[in-house]
Amino acid sequence: MRIVRTPSGAVVPDETGRAAGRGAYLCRTGACLQIAIKKGALSRALKTPLPEELPQMLTGSQTNNETIEGGTLGQE
Questions:
Q1: Residue 25 forms beta bridges with which residues?
Q2: What average pLDDT does the segment 50-75 reach?
């Protein structure tokens, strides 16, 4: 999964992998996303504060250890 800070400053998921802006790649599990947010790694990689609604926007109703999408262990 790729998360992008667009030139306008918005932080959005990039499902195509081609969006313009500063991007950061994460594995496709909900736990990986939560750890990256909690430890501040995603914010540092994007060089911007993250919006509070980002976890809900990315995971929806997924639980911690469920795969969001993709193949085995998030690899495509």
A1: 2
A2: 62
